[in-house]
């Protein structure tokens, strides 16, 4: 291919890819398959690789990959980015309309109404049709430069569509947001990686856009809607409605759902209709924005210091409803934690009937001072579990006694113990509610590693009464297993074999498998190393445990109370009786050194060579510790692919950041 041909082909590809990007991301109406699109994209990448001097900065291939910045640069806005007066009462909306009529001295005013997106506001600058700069709102006067991050948003054209010449200068305001399904998927990915999930799509969008590393933003599914021309070299359309049409013609995404309203009653109807469709929209909105349509009238009305006089946000009523607490029940979770649960007189909140709401823990119940019979406001935000927002005092009401946590577990009757704000059942494996979880945990990979003992099998074994404690696993017979759903001869044999295999276990794995509160893999190893045998651990007192470095008062109490429970001691005895052979762990597994002693590692993002567990094991074998959050005391943050917010925290706290390769080197040299 000659250079000329390459230029021509690249130009054609740029045009086609931009066109399809717009259809796909901007309009949600693709015309070609993903595979065809990929082919075009790959062809462009190949041509650009062969002719790097032909790469234009707004090529779709250049959306990703800028290297991390130190911090986001500050940029002054060309025009102040105002906020909106917001209201929830229709009377206030009528008053707004009256004010508009009075100030404009007109009887008939046309408004444009559109959704109020729940995202974050951005300023987008296009010079001669090319996207050159974008900033967050900041304080309204000065924002943060997020140009490289905005470039990763596929719905945002890097080049304006135009019929003849593009405007020499255009400043647009829009809202960056994240769709609900994308938000949920992102949170799932984050949680799987051990990172903290975002509370709502708005936080997720803000967190993603304000990344220092645009590669992270690129991996986050953001989108944008534009709703205001802040500056334009040339004639600005005469109404807001036409402004949105102009933005559309340039290929910028605008609010699809909108209405030109000829009266304020029409605005109210749009508000109602939009509220009704709110639950079915794929993104979050928190009201509508009402704007005087004519731009000359907008100019005439002008602005106050923080908000324009010609527009308002007419918010939806918060998704809160009033109801009555009929009872407070206590549920027992798989780890034994007792959770108070308000049983409510059923009430519809934002289209969903709610009859129970979590009260989290006893402190929360006390803080909100809610009792049986009280009138309360129930709240539902996004798809979050309903919660009690607050108590609504009723004059002259006769209130019942304050709620108190039970002394005995409502499921098994064992004593209830307290740990900070949390109450838990001490019954451990004798509590049916905990038994399933305990067995699943006992059989899991890092504990006894019993292959084939999945959730479904455990549930059946417990429900049929075949397994009442951990030791019962070791007297299961083939006939019993054959009675379970989905168990043929082969599956039963295999499961029995893996149960048999699990009988040789190292002390640390057994300790980990017992599911003692606060005793995870690391503490289990520390204990095994220090005490050597199960009988020494069972004979130890709280004070003995406290002597061990790394074991604090809470863990000591937890250990001592577990091993002093008669029922737990019996289970231990039966486990041994049924053939469990406990080996002391190899002295300092992996001939580990103590070179990481006192060092704390935090991992963020995915690692190529290790699972998170393996990486943790490596650190611990060398005497170090792994933590899930970054603090000043963190020694190293190891950043893998798609690192999360911990990377920024590390930068802010000036903690040493290692790549995976550097981490591997460090382990090796140790
Ligand atoms: S118009 C001067 N339109 O709501 C014009 N704002 O509380 C000002 N917002 O900071 C904004 N959707 O981030 C406008 N369709 C929409 C909007 C919208 C969401 C946000 C915007 C603003 C906030 C005001």
Which class do the helix and strand fractions yield? alpha+beta
* Average pLDDT score: 88
Report the end-to-end length measured between terminal Cα atoms.
54 Å
The biggest sheet amounts to: 7 strands, antiparallel
Heterogens? 2-(butylsulfanyl)adenosine
Oligomer: single chain
What would you give as the CATH superfamily of the largest domain? DNA ligase/mRNA capping enzyme
Indicate the percent of residues in helices: 25-40%
Which descriptor suits the 3D outline? globular
Concise synopsis of the structure shown:
This protein has 670 residues and is α+β, with helices and mostly antiparallel strands. It contains 24 helices and 24 strands.
Give a verbal description of the structure.
There is one protein chain. This protein has 5 domains: 3-62, Orthogonal Bundle (Helix Hairpins), CATH 1.10.287.610; 85-315, DNA ligase/mRNA capping enzyme (D-amino Acid Aminotransferase, Chain A, domain 1), CATH 3.30.470.30; 320-391, OB fold (Dihydrolipoamide Acetyltransferase, E2P), CATH 2.40.50.140; 425-583, 5' to 3' exonuclease, C-terminal subdomain (DNA polymerase, domain 1, Orthogonal Bundle), CATH 1.10.150; 600-669, BRCT domain (Rossmann fold, 3-Layer(aba) Sandwich). With 670 residues, it is α+β, with helices and mostly antiparallel strands. The model is unreliable at 587-591 (pLDDT under 50). Helix 1 runs antiparallel to helix 2 (34-50) and helix 16 crosses helix 17. Strand 17 (416-419) and strand 18 form a beta hairpin. The protein is built from 24 helices and 24 strands. The radius of gyration is 31 Å and the shape is globular. Strands 12, 13, 14, 15, 16, 17 and 18 form a 7-stranded antiparallel beta sheet that branches. Helix content is 37%, strand content 21%. The structure holds 2-(butylsulfanyl)adenosine. 2-(butylsulfanyl)adenosine binds next to strand 3, strand 8 and strand 11. Residues 82-84, 86, 114, 116-117, 121, 175, 227-228, 255, 289, 308, 311, 313 line the site of 2-(butylsulfanyl)adenosine.
């Amino acid at each position: 291919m000659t250079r000329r041909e390459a230029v021509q082909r690249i130009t054609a590809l740029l045009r086609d890819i931009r066109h399809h990007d717009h259809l796909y991301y901007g309009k949600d109406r693709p015309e070609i398959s993903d595979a065809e699109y990929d082919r075009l994209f790959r062809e462009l990448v190949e041509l650009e690789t062969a002719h790097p001097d032909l790469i234009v900065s707004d090529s779709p291939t250049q959306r990703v990959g800028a290297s991390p910045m130190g911090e986001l640069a500050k940029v002054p806005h060309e025009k102040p980015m105002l906020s909106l007066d917001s209201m929830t009462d229709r009377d206030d909306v009528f008053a707004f309309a009256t004010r508009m009529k009075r100030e404009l001295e007109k009887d008939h005013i046309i408004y444009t109404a559109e959704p109020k997106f729940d995202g974050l506001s951005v300023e987008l600058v296009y010079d001669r049709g090319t996207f050159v700069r974008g900033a967050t709102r900041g304080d309204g006067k000065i924002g943060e430069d997020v140009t490289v991050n905005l470039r990763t948003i596929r719905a945002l054209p890097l080049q304006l569509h135009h019929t003849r010449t593009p405007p020499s200068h255009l400043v647009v305001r829009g809202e960056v947001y994240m769709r609900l399904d994308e938000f949920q998927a992102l949170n799932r990915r984050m949680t799987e990686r051990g990172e903290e999930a975002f509370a709502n799509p708005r936080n997720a969008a803000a967190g993603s856009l304000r990344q220092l590393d645009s590669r992270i933003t690129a991996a986050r599914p953001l989108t944008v809607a534009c709703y205001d021309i802040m500056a334009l070299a040339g004639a600005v359309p005469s109404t807001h409605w036409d402004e949105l049409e102009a933005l559309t013609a340039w290929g910028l995404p605008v609010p699809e759902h909108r209405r030109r309203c000829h009266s304020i009653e029409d605005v109210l109807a749009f508000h109602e209709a939009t509220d009704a469709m709110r639950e079915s929209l794929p993104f979050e909105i928190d009201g509508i924005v009402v704007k005087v349509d004519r731009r000359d009238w907008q100019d005439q009305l002008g602005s106050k210091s923080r908000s324009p006089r010609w527009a308002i946000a007419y918010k939806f009523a918060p998704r809160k409803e009033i109801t009555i607490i009929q009872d407070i029940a206590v549920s027992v979770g798989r780890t034994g934690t007792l959770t108070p649960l308000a049983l409510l007189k059923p009430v519809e909140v934002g289209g969903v009937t709610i009859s129970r709401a979590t009260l989290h823990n006893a402190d929360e119940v006390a803080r909100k001072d809610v009792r049986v019979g009280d009138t309360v406001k129930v709240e539902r935000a996004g798809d979050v579990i309903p919660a009690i927002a607050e108590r609504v005092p009723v004059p002259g009401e006769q209130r019942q006694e304050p709620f108190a946590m039970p002394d005995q577990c409502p499921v098994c009757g064992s004593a209830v113990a307290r740990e900070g704000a949390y109450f838990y059942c001490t019954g451990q494996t004798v509590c049916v509610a905990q038994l399933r979880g305990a067995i699943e945990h006992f059989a899991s990979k890092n504990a006894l590693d019993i292959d084939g003992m999945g959730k479904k099998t455990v549930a059946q074994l417990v429900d049929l009464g075949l397994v009442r404690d951990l030791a019962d696993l070791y007297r299961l017979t083939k006939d019993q297993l054959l009675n379970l759903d989905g168990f043929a001869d082969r599956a039963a044999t295999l499961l029995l074999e893996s149960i048999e295999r699990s009988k040789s276990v190292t002390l640390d794995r057994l300790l980990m498998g017992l599911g003692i509160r606060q005793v995870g893999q690391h503490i289990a190893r520390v204990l095994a190393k220090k005490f050597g045998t199960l009988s020494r651990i069972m004979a130890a007192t709280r004070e003995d445990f406290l002597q061990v470095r790394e074991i604090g008062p809470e863990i000591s109490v937890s250990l001592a109370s577990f091993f002093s429970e008669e029922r737990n001691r019996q289970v231990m005895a039966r486990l041994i009786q049924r053939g469990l052979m406990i080996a002391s762990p190899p002295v300092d597994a992996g001939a580990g050194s103590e070179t990481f002693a006192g060092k704390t590692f935090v991992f963020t993002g995915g690692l190529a060579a290790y699972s998170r567990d393996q990486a943790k094991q490596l650190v611990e074998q060398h005497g170090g510790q792994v933590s899930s959050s970054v603090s000043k005391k963190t020694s190293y943050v190891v950043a893998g692919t798609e690192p999360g917010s911990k990377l920024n925290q590390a930068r802010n706290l000036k903690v040493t950041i290692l790549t995976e390769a550097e981490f591997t080197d460090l382990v090796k040299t140790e």
